[in-house]
Amino acid sequence: MRHSGRAANELRPITLETDVNRYAEGSCLAKFGNTHVLCTATIEESVPGWMKGSGRGWITAEYGMLPRSTQSRMGREAARGKQSGRTQEIQRLIGRSLRAVIDLQGFGERQIRIDCDVLQADGGTRTAAITGSYVALYQAFQLMQEMKAIETIPFVRQVAAISCGIHKGQAIIDLDYEEDSAAETDANFVLTDDGQVVEVQATAEEKPFSRVEFDALMDLAIQGVSELAIAQRNALGLED
């Protein structure tokens, strides 16, 4: 039994609350248990210089943790004048995950910036950020469609993400911080709603893991992302 009382294949309580920012073109507060991430989407009527004239748009992301998102205060990266390698890696992951499921020609030469701010962290901040960012970005596309800037929503698939790991010899899903910090294997799965792989990050923390163990993690991830995809559609008011 997990310390939270959850089953091995049970997600934490998940909520995806939309329209939480009155100014952003799209916004979603993603809550995976005690991990809370605010995701916003901002539309810009230009693209990076290297993309001009291509007829394609671009999606980019920024990620950050608020000073008291953790048990002890962490200094702001802006105050240090440099982003950590972890921050850079996560925001690139968010951008890649979204671009993988979008027709970049479907919204013209525009850039959409996704901002993911961790309000409270208890494990799985990057997976919550990706899952919430899909909702915020979809809302931004809906607004563009309402304004006749685009004809159709350019997403070709849904995308969401979930953490899985081997903890005390058992494959479990959606690890909180206590589980993540003690896991023998730690993995993050970015998948489409129909189980296709966008990205997998898997690390042996104490000892190598087997193909059988990896397959068990993959099975959990497919199940979990399927549940998250339903939550995303419900948050957006889309028919399931």
Automatic annotation (TrEMBL):
Cited InterPro entries: ExoRNase_PH_dom1, ExoRNase_PH_dom2, ExoRNase_PH_dom2_sf, PNPase/RNase_PH_dom_sf, Ribosomal_Su5_D2-typ_SF, RNase_PH, RNase_PH_bac-type, RNase_PH_CS
Transmembrane residue ranges: none
Keyword tRNA-binding carried by entry: yes
Keyword flag RNA-binding: yes
Enzyme class: transferase
EC number of this enzyme: 2.7.7.56
GO terms for biological process, alphabetical: rRNA 3'-end processing; rRNA catabolic process; tRNA processing
Gene3D superfamilies: GHMP Kinase, N-terminal domain (3.30.230.70)
Family to which the UniProt record says this protein belongs: Belongs to the RNase PH family.
HAMAP family xref list: RNase_PH
Function field: Phosphorolytic 3'-5' exoribonuclease that plays an important role in tRNA 3'-end maturation. Removes nucleotide residues following the 3'-CCA terminus of tRNAs; can also add nucleotides to the ends of RNA molecules by using nucleoside diphosphates as substrates, but this may not be physiologically important. Probably plays a role in initiation of 16S rRNA degradation (leading to ribosome degradation) during starvation.
NCBIfam families: RNasePH
Protein name (database record): Ribonuclease PH
Organism, as annotated: Limibacillus halophilus
Name of the gene encoding the protein in the UniProt record: rph
